[in-house]
Amino acid sequence: xxxxxxxxxxxxxxxxxxxxxxxxxxxxxxxxxxxxxxxxxxxxxxxxxxxxxxxxxxxxxxxxxxxxxxxxxxxxxxxxxxxxxxxxxxxxxxxxxxxxxxxxxxxxxxxxxxxxxxxxxxxxxxxxxxxxxxxxxxxxxxxxxxxxxxxxxxxxxxxxxxxxxxxxxxxxxxxxxxxxxxxxxxxxxxxxxxxxxxxxxxxxxxxxxxxxxxxxxxxxxxxxxxxxxxxxxxxxxxxxxxxxxxxxxxxxxxxxxxxxxxxxxxxxxxxxxxxxxxxxxxxxxxxxxxxxxxxxxxxxxxxxxxxxxxxxxxxxxxxxxxxxxxxxxxxxxxxxxxxxxxxxxxxxxxxxxxxxxxxxxxxxxxxxxxxxxxxxxxxxxxxxxxxxxxxxxxxxxxxxxxxxxxxxxxxxxxxxxxxxxxxxxxxxxxxxxxxxxxxxxxxxxxxxxxxxxxxxxxxxxxxxxxxxxxxxxxxxxxxxxxxxxxxxxxxxxxxxxxxxxxxxxxxxxxxxxxxxxxxxxxxxxxxxxxxxxxxxxxxxxxxxxxxxxxxxxxxxxxxxxxxxxxxxxxxxxxxxxxxxxxxxxxxxxxxxxxxxxxxxxxxxxxxxxxxxxxxxxxxxxxxxxxxxxxxxxxxxxxxxxxxxxxxxxxxxxxxxxxxxxxxxxxxxxxxxxxxxxxxxxxxxxxxxxxxxxxxxxxxxxxxxxxxxxxxxxxxxxxxxxxxxxxxxxxxxxxxxxxxxxxxxxxxxxxxxxxxxxxxxxxxxxxxxxxxxxxxxxxxxxxxxxxxxxxxxxxxxxxxxxxxxxxxxxxxxxxxxxxxxxxxxxxxxxxxxxxxxxxxxxxxxxxxxxxxxxxxxxxxxxxxxxxxxxxxxxxxxxxxxxxxxxxxxxxxxxxxxxxxxxxxxxxxxxxxxxxxxxxxxxxxxxxxxxxxxxxxxxxxxxxxxxxxxxxxxxxxxxxxxxxxxxxxxxxxxxxxxxxxxxxxxxxxxxxxxxxxxxxxxxxxxxxxxxxx
Length: 1011
Ligand SMILES: [Zn+2]
Ligand SMILES: [Zn+2]
Prior knowledge:
Blueprint: H1 11-25, H2 27-35, E1 48-49, H3 56-74, E2 84-86, H4 90-100, H5 105-111, H6 113-137, E3 148-149, H7 153-168, E4 172-182, E5 187-188, H8 191-194, E6 198-211, E7 219-224, E8 235-238, E9 243-247, E10 251-254, E11 263-268, H9 269-272, E12 276-277, E13 292-296, E14 308-311, H10 317-326, H11 356-365, E15 369-380, E16 390-399, H12 402-412, E17 416-418, H13 422-432, E18 436-437, E19 439-440, E20 450-452, E21 459-461, H14 465-471, E22 492-493, E23 499-500, E24 506-507, H15 509-514, H16 516-519, H17 549-555, E25 561-564, H18 571-583, E26 590-594, E27 597-599, H19 615-621, H20 624-633, E28 640-642, H21 644-670, H22 685-706, H23 710-737, H24 741-758, H25 763-773, H26 795-818, E29 826-832, H27 841-848, E30 850-855, E31 861-867, H28 869-876, H29 880-888, E32 893-894, E33 900-902, E34 905-907, E35 912-918, E36 922-926, E37 931-935, H30 940-961, E38 970-975, H31 985-992, E39 994-1000, E40 1006-1009
Parallel strand pairs: 1-2, 2-3, 7-10, 8-13, 17-26, 25-26, 27-28, 29-30, 38-39
Antiparallel strand pairs: 4-5, 4-16, 6-7, 6-15, 8-14, 9-10, 9-11, 12-13, 16-18, 19-24, 20-21, 22-23, 29-37, 31-35, 32-33, 33-34, 36-37, 38-40
Helix pairs in contact: 1-25, 3-19, 3-20, 4-6, 12-13, 12-18, 20-21, 20-23, 21-23, 21-24, 22-23, 22-24, 23-24, 24-25, 26-27
């Protein structure tokens, strides 16, 4: 006997049950054991930042990773299953700052860098555990005690080696440039951290006069939305070939910006170049000695502002570039925290926002303000703390990108991207990538191993812990790990003999994640070190080994990686950069990437908007299988609308599958049936079809998995379930009632195969069903059963039944359009365009409840043709009237390809609008190939039969409601008014398992169980 299935699946309960069972039975370990030594499938996990519990969006990538690892495992591949945690850098630091209530670098330093580092490590340990639990609940099979943590000393050492290689190639330099800067975090940000971090902000909009020297009463007018930059102004730029005009108030503007004004004098931009003007804040100490003048700049925009641009090289990237061309002084007004320096007088110590008011008031007082308002615009903000960014001149460490750009493009050309157009996105990013700004002025991050020497001018880059030890002049005893503050207490000896200190900066977190194809796989490591990766801050958190180089050779490059599209400029980029630098090759062969998660109404999810769903909530309320199904069904190049509504819809759809399994279990139990390897008798045509259809499912699913195309997996599954339930089971009902073992066996075969192939997507449901359905000698878990080998299929048979199903679908559609219930038999059906379906007259007749089926041209169709007026009007002119009349009268001939001949004109398919309609008395539906028509007229016989079908349906519902077993017999009593139905008594008895049908003085049909 099979264990009975409940009426509805309780997804949450069955998932918990299966999770516990997997653990108890060690299913995953047994799977790994079975695959050991099999062909490797190398997947490299992009690290998840261990800084918060997972959001629902994290479940997307985690699902895809698990789906394909499971698929490859079923195919016998040996895999690593190493999960990764990102552990240092701004994410974690800002998380800890919030936890501790710290809000500036000064407060961190007062708190103590060592203590701060300990808190960061605690936070990582805490959330690594939370994330692990959530991933397990999602069904993700990973080697959980073997995770890599990017703050391990080993990981850091590998980055040091990479940086040393960059230095040896001359790519490493200290840049003095204008960078986007977060005043709260006190650090610059790199190009890849800026994209998409924008907010709509309101800023002041000022039109300001710069009075010209030697030209009394004349001023340049500039426009700015950053008043704080005015105290650092040194020049004004004009477009040399633009025309400028002086209005009667003495103000110079670009004519194009104010075309209606009356200008008393006009001049080209070139003529204004070289003029000197009084700066807006010349009295400030910082401005002493600065000569303000007009410079030429071809890029001055005439689409906004005044056509004259205020230039402050210390406060903008383009301004800074201009300062190099025109040899302008560079005034840097603000410090790391975004506050004004002492040389800025009354502004000293104030933030950029705070000075906007005083600057405006001062300009107003001196008559320099033409107009003050406000403007709402898209403005860059810090991706981590949302503080608006400012430009600052800073000395940052950069890696030159030019030399590696082409090799990276070449490497990307070897990568297979899914969906494929993301390959172009990667190319675009690589073509435009700036030098990589790798330094951050922070605390808990990769310590950059840079030791500049003031004596000899050389830069020493330390490439390993061993090298550090060798060169150290002290401090080694307190070096607990390669982090600040401990690393800063280890000075080293320069080749020239001087003692050197490390620069204070830490590294970009994408260095941490980018190195993992080397650090976790033991690149160039001569000897395998047990737990050799679990070093420094990672000691005690993981047991990960540091493998040897042979291992790296085996697992590098990754066959497959999968992360969200954003990672093109982040992890896909950083690991490609590092990999091409070290090996000249791409670190991955294929990539599956996907878009963003939105709420179910298509809005971005934000905690503050109350529409965010975190992973815990989703898992508790929706369950893992449905979440996984939702992610898999989705086309990854589109944003996904996630929520309880879509989840309920999937749960509802899955019921069809569940019911099919339940149907089998119930009837197999009635007949005490157990399946063997082979069918227990001769297959009927429908059985043969389902057998082939099942093979087709395996082939389609295998193909979709091989292409990493999850929507294809779900589509193949869905159409199979439809065929199984709405064709095979429905067409075979009578056989199941009769305990037909061949039908039971065929259905069983279809169910176990479908459970197998959907297993990677819905592992819990699959194992829950597998444990009930599996043959006695099959493994206990579906994941221990090898993937079914696709075999050749009888495509003719598949095509034949597929055509029958299309005829039936169209017939149903025609009935529906005509408002005719399926239970009402009809007289005649005509099918046009059918091929092999013609061999299935009886099935079609039965499915569509028609007495006669004819395969012939459908004459019940009326073709109406109208002129496509926008095209034909101009073409036919006066002829249009007669043509239209002829078309209306049906006086035309249809041509191949959809056109018509009318009144001596040949009109193309696009020149006419063709409408096909049923003639009176017919219902009709058509697709590209098939046309199906049915007579709609009813006679007494048809009406009576329709009532019998209604009765059968009603009685069977009554049986169910009364809780009768499938085998129970009944006595059926009908109202006297239904006496005419007794003509069909045998038919009725047969359909409702009645021993007797009679009429009596009842008002509704009644049933009674016979003993
Ligand atoms: Zn910030
Ligand atoms: Zn030196």
